[in-house]
Specification:
This protein is an alpha/beta fold. It is 40% helix and 28% strand. The protein has ten helices and twelve strands. Helix 2 packs across helix 3 and helix 6 runs parallel beside helix 7. The mean pLDDT is 88.
């Protein structure tokens, strides 16, 4: 097994005939929390979509391995079963599909992939109760249709609840903090921190220091025009909070 949870090498990707990622190199080990920051339009969300297998994006060059396996060769559902989770910036509503049925189907599909028997209804409801507590998700929300009528904060909290239930190896959180008030941000961040372990890893895509104050990533990357132009420790996020991206961009362009 590779020492890396995720290893991305010279990754290029396009959508609609336009190249967005222009040579991404990224290495994530178990137990690590990485933050990816950068101005709007840099390719942060594109990177998350490419890693998750969104068919709207085409990889034109490069490699990505996940736990030693060729990530780019896997269909999206296999990436999920292998342990990759994407928390969306704008979670979608799925009217008519209850959270309970949605999550039980997801859990049992993963168990089937891993050669395990399906989880009984009793065990699954116990799991739901346990994981709801991690993100303080109201039981009424968990019994409704997926995200239907949820506020922005409730949708984001629901994403972390899904993450808690599925227990992924690698979680990619794409601007989970956008639109959250202080209380919702704390609850989401506490949920992510509670789920951290030496066996899993997290990539947080964000504009703001505020979320990183809670999550305390060990490694911060600056993505600009489809490339990672700087990688450093948490002090890099503090520098950006104070000075913005311009000094780093100018330094990279010299």
């Amino acid at each position: 097994m590779s020492q890396y949870m995720l290893k991305v090498s010279d990754l290029h990707a396009e959508t609609g005939g336009k190249e967005i990622l222009k040579g991404i190199n990224l290495e994530v080990r178990p137990g690590e929390v990485h933050a990816i920051m950068g101005p709007n339009g840099s390719g942060k969300s594109t990177l998350s979509m490419v890693l998750a297998g969104n068919p709207a994006y085409t990889v034109t060059r490069g490699e990505a391995t996940f736990r030693g396996k060729d990530l780019l060769a896997m269909p999206p559902e296999v990436r999920s079963h292998e342990g990759l989770f994407l928390g969306f910036q704008y979670p979608v509503e799925i009217p008519g599909v209850s959270m309970v049925n949605f999550m039980r189907a997801a859990v049992n599909e993963k168990r089937k992939y891993l050669g395990e028997p399906p989880m009984s209804a009793t065990d699954f409801l116990r799991l739901m109760r346990e994981k709801r507590a991690v993100v303080e998700l109201d039981s009424k929300l968990a019994s409704r249709s997926v995200n239907e009528g949820f506020s922005g904060g409730e949708k984001k909290r629901n994403e972390i609840f899904q993450m808690a239930v599925l227990e992924p190896r690698l979680s990619i959180l794409d601007e989970t903090d956008s639109g959250l008030d202080v209380d919702a941000l704390r609850i989401v961040a506490d949920g992510v921190n509670t789920l951290k372990s030496p066996e899993n890893a997290t990539i947080v895509i964000t504009h703001y220091q505020r979320l990183l104050d809670y999550l305390q990533p060990q490694i911060v990357h600056i993505l600009y025009k489809g490339r990672i132009i700087r990688t450093d420790g948490p002090e890099l996020a503090a520098f950006i909070e104070k000075n913005g991206f311009d000094p780093i961009i100018k330094d990279a362009e010299l």
